[in-house]
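Dear Dr. H.,

I hope your travels went smoothly. While you were away I took the liberty of generating a structure for the chain from your last submission, since the lab meeting agenda had it listed for discussion. I wanted you to have the full record in hand beforehand rather than looking at slides cold. The sequence, exactly as received, is reproduced here:
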Amino acid sequence: MDILDNFAYANLTYKELFNLFVIFGGSGAGLSLVIAIFFASKDKHISFVGKASLPFVFFNINEILIFGIPIFMNFSLLIPFVLVPVINCILSLFFYLTMI
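The corresponding predicted structure, in token form, is as follows:
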């Protein structure tokens, strides 16, 4: 049975692992940012940008989020934008290597 368990991971390259588990929702894991906007945002402009960008984030298009909020000029949003993919990478590699 060990052979069958390892067969599912045999063709998973690093690029596929990165695309599937690290940057889902586009650069900076924009899908997690949109979800956080829906739960925590009190600003009407940010909520509107989050609602408008939701269909595009599913297809990894984040320009509406990056320039609409704007992430690149807001330090408090830039840190999670950089750290969420790093945390996703660490977690996915941990689970991949331990085969959980």
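Two observations you may find useful: The first helix runs from residue 2 to 7. DSSP finds six helices and no strands in the chain.

With kind regards,
E. W.
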